[in-house]
Amino acid sequence: MAIDQVKKNFEDSIEEGNGFYNTQSTKVSQNTRTLVMGIITTIWVVSYNDGSFMLSNNWMIASLFTGFAYLAIDILHYFIDTCFYYNKLLSLEKKYGDKKYLTTYNQSLIKHSRLSYIWIWIKFLSFVIIAFTFLIGILKHFF
Length: 143
What we know:
143 residues; mainly alpha; two-stranded antiparallel ribbon; 3 helices; 2 strands
């Protein structure tokens, strides 16, 4: 009986951790996406002059392309996550029917969460590169 309680507590902790991780991941992604869009918009504004678009230096070009790459990675990450969870839900529905709590489901969530964690780091490092190149580019543009 005690072993079952320990297992239940462990599974509840994993579920709570996944919920916290998903909430924080969503907040970070939304904020970073907003900042990347702001950087792209700022590059557009400072590069548009007298009816033409001219990027003033290679740092601005690097920041712009890295920003677009970040947005593509972000879309790909959420597309992969959405497909994974949908396919997992369908397979569990076929296999187990109405059972609500499944250990096999939690194990696959843990594995997928680890992969998602790698994507989060890739996106974060991309954002650091975008911000760095943008900062250098905007400083070179005005000074």
